[in-house]
């Protein structure tokens, strides 16, 4: 009996029911890891739901979701700013008050960052354990082509380098509220409604000052002593890992929040564009003829337009409309990227989809009377999705650059919402001064992220297609290998 037939006769849930111990052990470990950050995860889910609700005309349930979000933030978690605080003040004796265990704010913040990234790598390791247990206990075959793909990716050093950079970026975006030395609301959105404590040497006592006032005294404008550089403190005892912006706001907090915006725009755009391209690739490969011709003409028409100019034009034209106000302009950018990028994906998937549609098992499925939807879903999709992953990883970095470029030009995401390109634009006049960090650090981070996504894409391509690094398999055979297996 073939592996495919066996898997269809005995569903995965039945295999787990016959041997539940490994699955329950993995689930128990996952629950423990999730419990550590339960409040943060619930908060992220509620924020996503709140974002979707605010896109609706009447905002139904927005108030209830906002209250639930506040309640979720009050749930104790291991890696939050409240448990490992880094904001405090230094007394005349040099002792730090209000920080975790009385540590200097820089070390308290660094401890929290190390723990958060360690937590992320533990999750990564636990997923790998789950994959190995699935192979050992719930999969019929001792080997599938997918095992070779995983092994090739594990030995691909350039791809692993890219994976580490991409993972670091994802963690920065996902844990942005905890990674920043301060909060976006306090330091960027509403600085004059929040207060910070500091030790006033003149009156020799602790004083309160609004964060907005403290920011005005902590600007980085490259003139004389008006600069708070990387890994330094301002006059109010606040630690700034990347220094401050021209208006005194913390650059690291700005970058972490901006990473979340860029990642959200990139992922949603890729999902929409990838869905359109994949559906069209399978439809045109299956039906060919007029369907393929119509898709070719449409995609060629869109691809003939300069993407950057289209982005600038669309952002300028729709900049004052209602759609530009949805999620501070992010929805408009998602719509533009989705429309302009699906033809590139479709062109990349069209060849593999046509190649698979000519295989003998597709003809066999047709002769057995399977519906076209079933054939495309079960027999064609698994073999084109590998190429989609390759081009998606290569494209995501380009979208991040495009979003930063639009923000640099004053388009796209509306202020004061953090976006990396706006930091580069603000710091450009000070590149040759003591405030070089405002433009240089965001520029270096954008470069690293793009290199990371490109390296990961190269690794996925070489793992799926050994021919790309001198193997004997053809591209079509590699596509089959990449999608096959139970």
TrEMBL record:
Subcellular location: Cell membrane
Residue numbers spanned by region Disordered: 465-486
GO biological process, one term: transmembrane transport
Membrane topology reported for the UniProt record: Multi-pass membrane protein
All copies of domain ABC transmembrane type-1, residue ranges: 259-457
Chief location bin: membrane
PANTHER family: D,D-DIPEPTIDE TRANSPORT SYSTEM PERMEASE PROTEIN DDPC-RELATED, OLIGOPEPTIDE TRANSPORT SYSTEM PERMEASE PROTEIN APPC
Identification of the protein by name: Binding-protein-dependent transporters inner membrane component
Protein's organism: Halococcus morrhuae DSM 1307
